Amino acid sequence: MATISVAEAAKRLGVSRQRVVAMIQSGSLPAVKVGRSYVIDAAAVSRHRGAVSRPLSPRMAAALLRLAAHEKPGVSASEVSRLRGRLARLHDAADPVGLVRGWLPGRARRLEMSAAAADLQTIAADPRLMLAGVSDPRAGMQSSRLVEGYVHEADAEGLFGEHFVVQAPSRSEANVIVHVADPVPPLSPLLVAADLADYREGREERQAATVLNRWISDSDIIRPRPRATGGR
């Protein structure tokens, strides 16, 4: 059996090392503990990677997010049925965060930007920016040092120019995360979880899982519908 390290598994799966360890501890990824770390079956990693769905098209990603926000999806009945089927997979998925991240990269363009720390509060209050991700209270990660949200494609240039928001020199220097979309998707726990998943960091992924699990437990959107009975 060919084996790989936690670091290599994280690289192949596109997740953090902490997420790989969590998958091992949950039993969804076979591994053997050696000393303080693990060795992982390379074939199991390949199977797990193949189980993550292909990204949805921008149109279907937008429809899924509208459905999750209790809005009309704007697609055909058969497409709605397929979207509900995807959401139903979250109930029993070994890695629901990975599924959501795999489905929704087409929802917006994610930009890592930078602005003066003194301007962050003003940026967060700008009506053109819909706060999401770490800036949404459901994430439990609100910070005065980082702002995240969505802006319409038509408003992005004006928002950036007015608040002197520029591309961050490095990821570590980004303090404004902007998702540029047309149209801006409605806010929902699914959207917040997708935003957190994009960080690919342990803390954010744990919070994404918390947001998702709470939504899965409470949502009537992905709860199986009772079958219609015959008769009048």
Automatic annotation (TrEMBL):
GO terms for molecular function: DNA binding. It comes from the Bacteria. Residues 5-46 form the Helix-turn-helix domain. NCBIfam families: excise (TIGR01764). This is Helix-turn-helix domain-containing protein. It comes from Aeromicrobium piscarium.
